[in-house]
Model the fold of this input.
Amino acid sequence: MNQNKRNYRATFILDNRGKEDSVEQIIEGLKQDITTLQGEVTGVENLGKRDFARVTDPKLTGATYVHIAFTAAADVPAHLKERLRLNSSVYRTFVEAV
Done:
């Protein structure tokens, strides 16, 4: 991995419908995924449940939004997105460099 660290802010939309995991447990899992990829979590902000501006699934009209700030190498966001692609608790992922 490249040793040059960058600052990122990831926005996650969480979907815990029909699951036993609470939002806090899902957030802890996301933080664990970031640290597994050699990232360092610097902040977590739970924005709470919000309605979607455009509803793509009539059964899901809103969900919980979470911002996680972290520092990692340049290739970590791509690996994180790929790792979370099959995670059914994460509805959407957006990672931006800050």
